[in-house]
């Protein structure tokens, strides 16, 4: 059962890592054309973060770790920060979709920054999980 949860967790991680990359490419193309797709991908990322937190929590005790292990605490903290970062573009797309407003260049740059930062945070979480040490 643990192997199944771990495999599910790894598949979710791979899907989550592709979302910021795809969104960055969509951001470089015609951003106005992909509003609905980008909104749905950000919503998927938020759901994946929740499922990753749940499946990661299920893997802690069977692997004989505690929730007070520094790299596990860092992973929870970074998932929380990543969810906050993704919330901003998600909410903006929700507003823009209902009002049919054009995208400003400052919002696009801010979105690129949040996507790059969230990708770096996700890579940091993977680093912590593999090496069992915090990267900070």
Describe this structure in words.
By secondary structure, the chain is mainly alpha-helical. The protein has one domain (2-131). The protein contains four helices and no strands. It has helices at 2-28, 35-60, 70-99, 105-131.
**Strand count, sense and closure of the main sheet?**
none
Could you tell me the radius of gyration in angstroms?
16 Å
- The span between the termini is 32 Å
Assembly state (oligomeric) = single chain
Unreliable stretches covering 5 or more consecutive residues: none
Mean pLDDT value: 86
**Share in helix:** over 70%
Instruction: Give the beta-strand count.
Output: 0
Number of domains: 1
The helix/strand order is: HHHH
Strand content: under 5%
Individual helix count: 4
Principal-axes shape call: elongated
Q: Pairing-aware structural class of the strands and helices?
A: mainly alpha
Quick recap of the structure?
This protein is mainly alpha-helical. It has helices at 2-28, 35-60, 70-99, 105-131.
């Amino acid at each position: 059962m643990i192997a199944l949860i771990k495999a599910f967790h790894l598949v979710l991680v791979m899907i989550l890592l592709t979302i910021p990359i795809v969104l960055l490419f969509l951001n470089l193309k015609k951003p106005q054309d992909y509003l609905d797709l980008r909104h749905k991908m950000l919503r998927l990322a938020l759901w994946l973060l929740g499922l990753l937190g749940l499946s990661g929590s299920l893997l802690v005790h069977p692997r004989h770790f505690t929730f007070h292990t520094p790299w596990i605490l860092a992973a929870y903290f970074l998932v929380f920060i990543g969810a906050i970062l993704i919330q901003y573009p998600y909410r903006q797309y929700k507003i823009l979709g209902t009002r049919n407003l054009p995208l400003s260049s400052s919002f696009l740059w801010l979105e690129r920054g949040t996507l790059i930062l969230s990708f770096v945070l996700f890579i940091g979480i993977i680093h912590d999980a593999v090496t069992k040490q915090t990267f900070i």
